[in-house]
Write a structure and sequence with these properties.
GH25 family lysozyme; Glyco_hydro_25; hydrolase; GH; alpha/beta; 17 helices; 7-stranded mixed β-sheet; disordered N terminus; PGBD-like_sf
């Protein structure tokens, strides 16, 4: 961003200085957090100011920039009087391209009460250039809040007050009828705002973190994580003029979402922008089992905290989760909640390989979109991702981003009780079975789980329902459910009541398939022979032949 010499800016972002102040100087920065590298995010853009013209005095070739970028932010103003000399020209030229765009203001207070004056200056300048905030292709305006340079030193703005920022943001929002974006970094909030970033909590964040590797910006205290990530200020960008006819350098950014989602933010067609990190994620913790646990384990391994992916949330997994949380500067409670989920998941796209892809494939299968778990994001996985996205009204782009991950782990294999598995209501389960051509019957013609003559699906695990659907698809048999989660079955962890078991009619087709694809294993105490399916040394399914009741009692682990 502007007003800072490149070298000093890069040093601050790389963590050379911390969040303490001496004589107003920002001397250091908080540690960054591990994440996917910027290259893993598909939607990229740049931000510019007069600095990008200074070397040559030449205009930027925005049509060329648009060939490899989706968006740009342009410096418009600083303080209560300064206007960037290139803003109006750049904004006009950008508006003639496919680039999504918005102006930004560098907050530079000269008094403790000039927030309104700065806002009014910015609004006048942006409007004069043709920006309204609501036109097609226009992104929300940006407030840039960071340290300033005084006598060759990077320091906290002495007159900075949270109240000023609140006034500016509200004034900007009222003027343009859109929620602004805030550019800052955690080290600035810690060092110059005493760690009190609550004034930014209701705004999308654009955070900086430069350097190589895959370490994302640290979350802003009181405000949260990033929506845009500025990952370098020195990338060669075709279209930006450089000295001696070279390709010039510019700040480069990525967006945490799909292009369709960004287009919505820019008043164009598409789907809603991705949810702010920390929403709509399940909680996975010690003692649980299931595909969500396996997903956590595989993602931990992908993040460098290798652990056995056995689907059991034991002490080894707890230790690895805590180590990951510590590295991320999160509460080290060993529980995978919203904050930990958003740090674990990574945007995946066709061509990617590794354990994170394996985790994705496990989730797809758990959600009824069965695919081979080979760790390769090939055509088959892409097709299944698109099918899942379509079914959940997401942008069907075949890229597993934040929204897709959140929907997968919310609706997939869960882990709410020992043995794991998200649970469904009776209506949800019945709808899934009906869509697959599976019926249910009961002697009482009812679905009340508290009546023994009913067949209820209330509280049945997703994995159990998906298992029955898979059985129908693989066997080609007619499947009729005769028992579910209703009372009067045997108790225990892996019970009907807990959603692990289901009874289906004992037809010759079903019996022939089970006995041809499972191994006869042992006889239960009630005399029923159990036919077992295992994978990797673990029991996956038990089929108990209850001939006297004319049904198969099936347990999905």
């Amino acid at each position: 961003m502007p007003m800072r010499p490149s070298h000093a800016l890069r040093l601050a972002a790389l963590g050379v200085a911390t969040a303490s102040l001496t004589g107003g100087a920002l001397l250091s920065t908080a540690p960054e957090s591990a994440a996917a590298p910027p290259s893993s995010y598909a939607v990229k853009g740049i931000d510019t100011s007069h600095h990008n013209h200074d070397a040559t005095g030449q205009p930027i070739d925005w049509k060329r920039v648009a060939q490899k970028n989706a968006f740009t932010f342009l410096k418009a103003t600083q303080g209560a009087r300064y206007q960037d000399p290139w803003f109006a020209r750049d904004f006009k030229a950008v508006s003639a391209t496919s680039l999504l765009r918005a102006p930004y203001h560098f907050f530079d207070p000269k008094g403790t009460g000039d927030g309104a004056a700065q806002a009014d200056h910015f609004v006048r300048t942006a409007r004069a250039a043709g920006y309204s905030g609501t036109k097609a292709g226009e992104l929300p305006p940006v407030l840039d809040v960071e340290s300033v340079w005084v006598n060759g030193k990077e320091v906290c703005p002495k007159a900075l007050r949270a109240g000023q920022l609140d006034v500016f943001l509200k004034r900007m929002k009222a003027a343009f009828k859109v929620t602004p974006i805030v550019y800052t970094r955690a080290s600035f909030v810690n060092g110059c705002m005493a760690g009190k970033g609550q004034v930014f909590k209701d705004y999308p964040l654009w955070l900086a973190r430069y350097g190589s590797g895959s370490r994302e910006p640290q979350s802003v205290p009181g405000a949260g994580s990033w929506t845009f990530w500025q990952y370098t200020e020195t990338e060669r960008v075709p279209g930006v003029p450089g000295a001696k006819n070279t390709v010039g350098k510019a700040d480069r950014n990525v967006y945490r979402g799909t292009l369709a989602q960004l287009r919505v933010l820019a008043n164009l067609d598409g789907t809603p922008a991705p949810p702010r990190p920390g929403t709509s994620w399940p909680t996975v913790k010690s003692g649980q089992r299931g595909v969500d646990v396996t997903t956590v384990q595989l993602l931990l391994t992908a993040r460098g905290h290798a652990v056995k992916a056995d689907g059991v949330y034991g002490t080894g997994t707890v230790a690895k989760v805590k180590a990951f949380q510590k590295a991320q500067h999160l509460p080290t409670d060993g529980i995978v909640g919203p904050q930990t989920w958003t740090r674990l998941v990574t945007t995946l796209k066709p061509g990617t390989k590794g354990t994170a892809v394996t985790a994705l494939q496990h989730q797809l299968t758990a959600n009824g979109h069965t695919v081979k778990t080979d760790g390769v994001y090939g055509p088959a996985t892409t097709t299944k991702v698109k099918a899942f996205q379509t079914a959940h009204r997401l942008t069907a782009d075949g890229i597993a981003g934040t929204n897709t991950w959140a929907a997968l782990v919310r609706g997939g294999g869960g882990g709410g009780t020992p043995g794991g598995g998200a649970k469904l209501s009776d209506a949800q389960a019945a709808a899934k079975l009906k869509a697959a051509g599976i019926s249910r019957v009961s002697s009482g013609n009812c679905t009340d789980r508290n009546r023994k003559n009913c067949t209820s699906l209330e509280g049945i695990r997703v994995g159990t329902v998906d298992g029955v659907i898979a059985l129908k698809k693989k066997s080609g048999c007619k499947i009729t459910v005769t028992g579910g989660t209703e009372t009067n079955h045997a108790g225990g962890t892996y019970s009907h009541w807990n959603g692990y078991k289901v009874d289906i009619s004992r037809t010759s087709c079903v019996t022939s398939y089970i006995q041809g694809h499972a191994t006869k294993h042992h006889k239960r105490g009630d005399g029923a022979w159990v036919w077992r399916v295992t994978s990797g040394g673990k029991t996956v399914v038990d089929y108990a032949d209850e001939r006297w009741a004319n049904h198969w009692d099936i347990t999905y682990y």
